[in-house]
Amino acid sequence: MCTLSCLARSHGYLLLFNRDERRTRAPARAPEPFTRTGVTFVAPIDGEFGGTWIGANQLGLTLALLNRYEDSPVEPGAGTVSRGLLVLSLLDAQDQADVANRLRHGRLGDYQPFTLAAVESDTEALLFDWTGATLAETRTGAPGLLRTSSGADQRKAEQSRRAVLEAAVLAAGKLDAEVLDAFHRSHLPERGPLSVCMHRPEAETASLSRIEVDPSEIRFDYVPGPPGEGAPPVTLRLARGG
After folding, report:
1. Residues of the domain holding 151
2. From the centroid of its chain, how far is CA 105?
3. Count of CB atoms within 10 A of residue 200's CB?
4. Judging by DSSP bridges, how do beta strands 12-22 and 2-9 pair with one another?
């Protein structure tokens, strides 16, 4: 129940991520800075398990997690570790290769299936798909919608959200930050389970993360609550370097 988009820029990128969660889940904390092994990163913190679903570090690396509902039940099984703790443990990684090495040699059997996106400047996004049995790695340089997930109807959500973005790009004549911002706040084709700003009786979009990476800094804008309802963002800036 999440949507991830990305747009490459000169020596940087723009990344947007809608986090969809059940309404009964404890509220998350807004992004804050952390330092581990000499690397500073910013990430929001899950209110129940203390992990995160997204974060960016001073080296310009962003990690974003989507659950794979098609490969696993919606609720965690007994004995599994929160996938958010895995993301948090990887946010001091040096680059995509470091993330890949840790995942390949880690205890992925402790976690339910997921897709983890690793994005950095001047290279294609790297997507890791853990099915519960195998880990696949895919590179994609395609701008726009990278992945979306749904706990209700995965196929329909993918088709609907891609169609909404394609129509917006066609109307604007280009894909840019304004188009992606509007896409992640959109209630098209109608406010409900298929819209990017998602609403169902038991779940809804809980936040929008907007990360801009340029040669000098990382800017993290975090909108708590459904982004289509106009909540003001919380903004953090992190100097890029290392």
Report:
1. 2-239
2. 23
3. 16
4. antiparallel
Backbone angles phi, psi at 201, to 5 degrees: -55, -35
CATH of the domain at 44: 3.60.60.10
Overall number of domains in the chain: 1
With a threshold of 0.90, does the pTM exceed it? yes
d(CA 117, CA 138): 10
Question: What DSSP character marks residue 110?
Answer: G
Q: pLDDT tens, 65-112?
A: 999 866 555 455 556 899 999 999 999 999 999 999 999 999 999 999
- H or E element, residue 100: helix 96-104
Contact yes or no for 156/165 (Cβ under 8 A): no
DSSP 19-88: EEEETTSPPPEEEEEEEETTEEEEEEE-TTTS--SEEEETTS-EEEEEE-GGGS-SSPPTTPPPHHHHHH
